Amino acid sequence: MKTGEKIGPDLRPPAPALGGRLGMLLARLLDGAMRDAARAIAFKAAGAVLMLAAFALAARVMDKAGFGTLVVWFNGLSFVVVVAQVGQETWIARSWHEHLGAGRDAEARGALARAFATVLVTGTIIGLGAAIFAVMTGQGAYLAASAFLFVLALTVFAVSIPASRTIVGIGAGDGHGEVTWRSLILAGCALLAVSGATFEAPDFLLIAALAGFASVALQVSAIRRALPESVRRARGVVDGPAWRRRSASMWASSLIDATSQFLEVLFVGLLLGPAMAAGYFAAGRLAAAFAMLSGGITNFALRAIAKDFFAGRAVQVQATLRRLAVAVAAAVAIGLAGILAVGGHLLTLFGADYAVYHTTLVLLSLGTAAVALGGPASAVLVLTGHERLHAVLLGASVAARLGAVAIGALAFGAVGAAAAYAATIATTTIVLVVVARRLVGLDPSIFSLFARSRVEIRDGAH
């Protein structure tokens, strides 16, 4: 099937009974693909818990204003890291299997080398820019140096994760990307806390940077060992115009997504102050349990779509997405029940006065749960050649969301900001699912449990 090909009229037969379909899906949840998906989600879950522990420890050691400062710098620099990636994290995930599957070993090697060379340069340049900004705003040399190392390390790390996941496997990519990195951060924070030394924002950023460099070294070593001999012997070739065109579109999508993910906390901090930003961030970290589900699914889907979709196995991709939807729906139901029941107690991990953000946590969780139920719709669009449309849709979504968050925050504080976030992100998710279903023929969402996708109707799959 050609990318974006229209798949005829939607003359779908009646869908099988939901009970029978669920039974068949549950019976197949433990196949090889689903085990890989479960591993990806498990790594995401472990990483989320480790990072939550690291931030909770920092919040308890620092005062609320100091923790708010850390939150603002961490989120701001994380956005800068996405700027420095210039779309290379998606470029390598898409290009590797596309070239390797077509026997283009030289192009596969060239794509890998170009991705790493690019982020080494951009990470250095933009990291220096972040350091200069820190000095100009009176933050001091220590924070400036920490900011530079953070941006450089995390920019390269952001490419080594998908590269090792694609070339070596989920264990090397997500294992080091989620667990190793965050374990080292938690260990460093714990050592600093028990030593009785002053714990400030630059300390956390430096620990995260050093942990990032260590994790990159492990992943690069794994990639070197796993490279196919044919690729190892090939002389790298890159189609410059195609690389620039694709990277630009993928970069735009990444930037827009990062604007929503990282700048929202900065926005709340500017409107309501660092202390309120700290509370919003704490609630957001717990609500990220559902974002963790989305991230795990997307990480798995990136590999599955790049490998199977371009090999003409779209029906198999849809079957895997449907089975993922069953598992995600169950996890979301359990997670929301837990947030409602004990969310206030969980917030006290950051300190007793954070419990007042329980309503904010519930609203943010509803939004991130909606994204999880929508499945990897963004990955489906970006990896099948619709990255420009995806960028346009996300751009409109982010503009609407930031406007709604500003209005909500000024009117009702953190609760208003969270309600605006939940409403706009849920709407965006539905739009992305509908577009993916119509243009690609794949339905990545929970709606796939109730009706067959276009690729299945076209191929007569049951």
UniProtKB/TrEMBL annotation:
Indicate the transmembrane segments per the record.
Answer: 41-59, 65-84, 111-135, 141-159, 179-199, 205-227, 278-302, 323-350, 362-384, 391-412, 418-440
Key word Ligase present:
no
Give the record's keywords alphabetically: Membrane, Transmembrane, Transmembrane helix
Q: What is this protein called?
A: Membrane protein involved in the export of O-antigen and teichoic acid
Q: Which PANTHER family match?
A: LOCUS PUTATIVE PROTEIN 1-RELATED
Superkingdom is Bacteria
